[in-house]
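Problem statement: downstream parser choked on a complex file, so we are re-checking the raw output for the magnesium ion run. The parser issue turned out to be on our end (a line-ending mismatch), but while we're here, posting the original submission so the record is complete.
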Amino acid sequence: MTIMAKSKPTILNTLIPYVAAILIALAAVGVFIALMGFDVLKAYYTILFTSFRTPNGFIQTLLKFIPLVLQAYAFTVPLAAGKFNIGGEGQLIVGAIGAAAVGILLPDLPPLLLIPLVLLGGIVAGALWGFIPGWLLYKFNINEILTTVLLNFVSFALINYVATGPWRDPAAGHPTTIPIGRGGYLPLLVDNPPLHAGIIIALLVAVAVYFYTTRSTAGYELVATGANPRAAGVFGINVKYMFVLSIVIAGGIGGLSGAIEVSGVQHRLIEGLQHNFLVLGLIIGLIAKGNNMAVPFVAFFIAVLEVGASAMQRTLMIPVEMVFIVEALVLLFVLLSDVVRRK
Amino acid sequence: MADTPILVMKGIRKTFDKSVALDDVSFELNAREIHGLLGGNGAGKTTLMNILYGLYKKDSGEISLHEKKINISSPRDALHKHIGMVHQHFLQITSFTVLENIVLGTEIHNKYSMDLSVEATKIQALQNRFNLAVDLNISIGDLPMGTRQKVEILKALYRGAEILILDEPTTNLTPQEVDDLFKSLRVMVDQDLSIVFITHKLREVLSVCDRISVLRNGRNVVTLKRDEANEEAFVRGMVGDEMDIQNSVIFSRGKSGQIGAEHIRAEVCLHLDQVQLASQGSVPRLKDISFKLRHGEILGIAGVAGNGQRDLAEVILGITLPTGGKVELDAKDILAMPTNQRLESGIAYIPEDRLLDGFLPKASVAHNLILGFHRKAPYSSGGFINWNTVHRTAAELIKTYNIKTSGPSDVGGNLSGGNIQRVLIARAFSKPANLLVAHNPTRGLDIPSMDFVYSRILEEKKKGLATLLISEDLDELLLLCDRIAVLYRGELVGTLDRSKFEKYEIGRMMSGYRAEE
Ligand SMILES: Nc1ncnc2c1ncn2[C@@H]1O[C@H](COP(=O)(O)OP(=O)(O)OP(=O)(O)O)[C@@H](O)[C@H]1O
Ligand SMILES: [Mg+2]
């Protein structure tokens, strides 16, 4: 993790292993694509450039970017304190439930009130969901990896319960609630193809996380705790409190990503709205090596790959999983380059 | 002694990013010799040996072993070539037993049952051969540093080391443990091993080494045979003309009577009254500790490591809460005060275990320099850190305390052991304090830095700083303290005034005899 210290190598130097990792990963997957009898160059072209060829592609990418960057932060913020939050998925789901509940219970409020309330509903619900593992850690020293993962499963049951309960939309064939009040819809920045204002929120979060972790006193304590909890404790930092705080903040960010899915994309609660955002968020956080500055860029890159992958499947019939392999390989090679460079 | 070198390193160069750690360094090790490696903090001793041990890749230069050119790619490879190393800051798994720690990562005979009796027999043979007795079935965490050090040596021997590199093995040892270690080292070389021994203590070098090489700023200075050598030559070699030997605390204060007693004021700074710290076992960790420490006074706490020194420091800092008694700072009860407030109300702390308790290896040097002060002006205001101020102050501290680093944003973990210690010292002195609790503050420092620390402590003493100097280095205590109290099994067995200082008497008290008062 290099958030804490800018070491001497230039930006260019830091980028080299990344670029190399991407090239090697693409080459490796290219071999498979070729063996499967597809046109490799066309596949590369589709993966890398779908996002930039049409306005639609670009907007698709931004829409993918929003949940991914937030999920990545839900992972990297506690990571700065040395804690592993694998519960971004559950926090997203519970945040979505909180947001939907507010939007359904107060359907007639004007947008000026309802939008912030819906988002806040998501943040608070997610933060509470993050507080549970935080508290278990604080009180009983129970490993947060375990609890956050397990709480994901609890959240699956919870969303199923809510989406098939009294708010169920009888017309839908899939567990879904009735829509939230119109006033809770995030406004559109671009109408066609639609781009909702969640992108602004995501960017604000990116800026806030950056300032929080690198500039604020609390962020300093977070980083110190992650760097050496014992020494931080000896010098007066309440490290257990920092652990809890970091997971609660992560929960809030995860919850916010759920709220944005509800108020920007689905306008209702739908089972399965979490997609595979958690895993991608973890991959982003790890490729960025926990560096919050790098997270948005990596998230954007992964969003490009994801959008390219769907296009590739549509037009060339190459399975999207190929791109998942690219992502995993990039991660692997970035981590490997660290081992090599340590010498 | 055969004078043909078995190991030759020639023209070794190593750079980290742009800074040159080693430049055209050569090193020769003869068969059956103990070869001392001396040099100031950051001179490149550890780096040179890490290259030999395959941890770092050299930029250029060559290494030959038994007159054959070799290439060492990893520690595993080094061990394969019978080169073993015990690190300055070694890592052990504290919940494992000695035996488990030693065999960890090696081929095990009964892999599936994890029955380690075959290994245990082998290790016992080594123990007998080299005079390194350790109970194999105790968990490592319960052992004193000296024994853990032995375990590390056994680990290297068990892996077949014939060339053994010891990086500052004596910094954590008591004088008794040092003697034992030296005896073992002699046995080892008598049985055909060769040893590289890194240290800052000249006396040790002169008493145990056959030959000595000195490094300065990543370059060779000299290699001398023991009988050609003397202390002053080494100091000159290590520091060049940087240090004013005549005016140094170490070389001038010595036995002379003047101790600055006139700076001791009437006001009591720290008052401990009947402090108790019970433990789960039957022996209390601290028992009836009472003393008064005045402003402008230096009170030494002597004792063999592990007699409650750390607990005493942590009780004063509020890291551990005593189970009884009173702790007062400037006549104010501070028992209920959390650590951060104690630090803010003027207690400076240099913890004993610099890496574990005092340093953030993954954070920057600037981060490290403000730890504990980060909530207060000028480093912080309105919930935000003023990084400009922090970096400016950090740059000044780096300069004043001669910390060898590329700058405030350098990663802390890149620093050499002694330079990490300098960071801790700089931090402790960076803010005006009323009370300094310093636990082995000069551990791992080279002689000029040690001298600098002493002169800083004496300077602050003039301004009224009360210092509790907890040290296992008796010479250090005799040099600086106004009074010395001896801690034995969590109890103060006596206190001596400077006029009554007597090494032998203190030594007796350290093993539990009460002073006749
Ligand atoms: N991994 C690293 N990255 C960057 N710089 C390093 C690294 N390791 C060592 N250095 C630098 O190389 C120089 C030599 O360090 P080294 O650890 O060899 O010193 P040393 O002689 O062992 O000192 P000490 O007595 O303090 O242990 C130092 O300036 C140190 O900052
Ligand atoms: Mg060293």
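For whoever reads this later: Chain A touches chain B at residues 1-2, 4-9, 215-221, 223-224, 226-228, 230-238, 343 (CB under 8 Å).
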